[in-house]
Amino acid sequence: MSNYHIKHLEEYFQVYRKSVNHPEAFWEEIAEENFIWRKKWDAVLEWDFSKPEVKWFKGAKLNITENCIDRHLLTRGNKTAILFEPNDPNEPAEYITYKQLSIRVNKFANVLKSKGIQKGDRVCIYLPMIPELSIALLACARIGAIHSVVFAGFSATALATRINDADCKMVITSDGSFRGNKTIDLKGIVDEGLEKCKTVESVLVVKRIHTDIQMKSGRDYWIAPLLEKASATCEIEIMDAEDPLFILYTSGSTGQPKGMLHTTAGYMVYTAYTFKNVFNYKEDDVYWCSADIGWITGHSYIVYGPLANGATSVMFEGVPSYPDFGRFWQVIEKHKVNQFYTAPTAIRALAKEKLAFVEKHDLSSLKVLGSVGEPINEEAWHWYNDNIGKKKSPIVDTFFQTENGGIMLTPIPYVTPTKPTYATLPFIGIQPVLMDENGQELKGNKVEGRLCFQFPWPSIARTIWGNHQRYKETYFTAFKGKYFTGDGALRDEVGYYRITGRVDDVIIVSGHNLGTAPIEDAINEHPAVAESAIVGFPHDIKGNALYGYVILKEVGESRNHDNLRKEINQIITEHIGPIAKLDKIQFTDGLPKTRSGKIMRRILRKIATNESKNLGDISTLLNPEVVQSIIDHKL
Ligand code: WTA
Question: Which of 41, 173, 609, 629 has the fewest CB atoms within 10 Å, i.e. the most exposed one?
Fold first, then answer.
């Protein structure tokens, strides 16, 4: 397995050079030696960022579930594939071996078929973090159906938008979900969402919280009796390397969420290879990523990457604060977790609590700590390093995006010296460049600019479902011939990268990407609202929180402002979900606008972050006079 597991820095540089100088030869070797192919490729890579079009392992035939499940059956049949830790610590954990996973995925796949799902059909999965979620993904992949997982914290409206965008034929959900000491009525949300959907023919329902729910006859089916009857063997659908594997929605700065389309072979090769190296995974390790499978991190680093390596991957249903703030550390102790991968927002929230919650638990099994989803601030980095890793587990600060499929910038643990707040170096095969605002590349070290990638990697999203033009405009037009991330970054004196944050109107709140436009659209639906603008401002735990500036119509002016604030947040919850609620809502008479009528969010952002002293020249605004009034009434 040459180059598959990188063990020291010199080797990293040597393999990196090879991957950049001879990308096709490099990836061909990785692909050939580490996966099962039903037919080899005719060409390793064809690409053209001007179209944009990328094809990896063209002409190859495979099935990702044969690589994630079947091939482990002989050597790892009795090894735990999925280790399920329920919300309630008193409920026993479930250890699903590769053999059991195989049976459960095959049965599930047969149930999908029995309900008419075929290769290429879209299946929406709206489930909590229970084993059926991973199993449903794999069952779709086994028969060539395209899964579209929607995070089970999204509202009925957000769910319906995503179902309709992909014309999903089926929804897989549960009677409800547990979240700490609360339950959520998922099936009710699905029922409400489906009132706006025409393409869904059937709904499969997993029993999780055992409440009485409505089942619509001819549409809704409990899955348990169907699974019981189903055969435990289901032949794989032989997929083309570039056949779609899944759609996953991500927020843009404007418009509807974007359904990023990922395909089969490149995604498999890249997530598997990054998983092995970024987490230094060894055969008997227990690996835990605390993300939700509703996000790309969960797809790539709870399901596909770990299983492709025959790993044991923990799936956690609960929350970090239930039954108390020691829950994460208790789970690490209980399952002797070796690699733990979480988000800065969780680290910040737990760092605020008493250290006794940590000290109660034996964390000596830990070997690698990971961070993902947003910049990790220095304080949180040190807290994580000192108290969780005890200064002996390297922290991998991993940068990537839904669009990237897999980790792009990261240290390799025990190989790359880490530096707080730095994602350090590109992963093997990744070619980052920093660009200035005029489209010139910033060469050399000690520069700061916009982060782009100038060469394709195997797991790059191939398009936005149903809108290739938008894909091109969003990622490939700002800088000719390059993929633009939308993030700013700097390169320090030794060539390490640090992400400085979004340069567009996407705001990352508790690790969730939120576009300003859909939130403003929701607010504007309130009958008393004339216009609104959202910006982010720094928040101790969430990283960023949302600040809304709202202009009321005359009808709203006499109303109680606190009630209006509640109603506005209620509308946002209904349209998007509670994650998009505003922390502060300031009512104002006007919003600063350019002469062409565009809201100047830059000015509003400065006011919200208490930087109103250096607003720059505002005299060119259409209405400079509103600025002072907004400053005077800042919350
Ligand atoms: C941000 C999450 C700093 C970034 C996997 C990116 C990060 C967006 C990091 C993608 C990191 C992700 N350091 N910022 N290590 N990781 N980001 O699509 O702004 O949910 O563009 O994918 O998160 O978020 P997404």
Answer: 629
For the segment 507-517, the average pLDDT, to the nearest whole number, is 91
Nearest CA owner, ligand 1 atom 15: 399
Which strands, in side-by-side order, build the sheet including 447-453? Answer: 432-435, 447-453, 483-491, 497-502
DSSP string, 5-61: S--SHHHHHHHHHHHHHSHHHHHHHHHHHHS--SB--SEEEEEETTTTEEEEEET-E
Pocket test for ligand 1, best of 401, 459, 512 (most atoms within 8 A of CB): 401
Q: Which atom of ligand 1 is nearest to the CA of 409?
A: 15
User: What are the residue ranges of helices labelled H in 287-396?
Assistant: 296-298, 305-308, 327-335, 344-351, 356-359, 378-383
Q: How far is the CA of 528 from the centre of ligand 1 (A)?
A: 35
- Is the CB–ligand 1 distance for residue 499 below 6 Å? yes
Given this model, what pLDDT does residue 211 score?
Answer: 95
Q: Is the CB of 243 under 6 A from ligand 1?
A: no
- Looking from the CA of residue 506, the nearest atom of ligand 1 is 19
* Ligand 1 and 313: CB distance under 6 A: no
What is the side-by-side strand order in the sheet with 395-398?
A: 94-97, 80-85, 312-316, 286-289, 339-342, 368-372, 395-398
Ligand 1 midpoint to CA 372 (Å) = 7
451-500 per-position pLDDT tens digit = 999 999 999 999 999 999 999 999 999 999 999 999 999 999 999 999 99
User: So what's the pLDDT on residue 2?
Assistant: 64
Q: Which domains does the chain have, with CATH numbers?
A: 2-489 (3.40.50.12780), 510-632 (3.30.300.30)
**Alpha-carbon span 421 to 398, nearest angstrom:** 10
CB 500 within 8 A of CB 492: no
Q: Work out the average pLDDT over 554-582.
A: 92
Tell me the two tokens of residue 323.
């039954």
Residue 635 confidence class, pLDDT cut points 50, 70, 90: very high
The pLDDT tens digits of the residues spanning 150-181 come to: 999 999 999 999 999 999 999 999 999 999 99
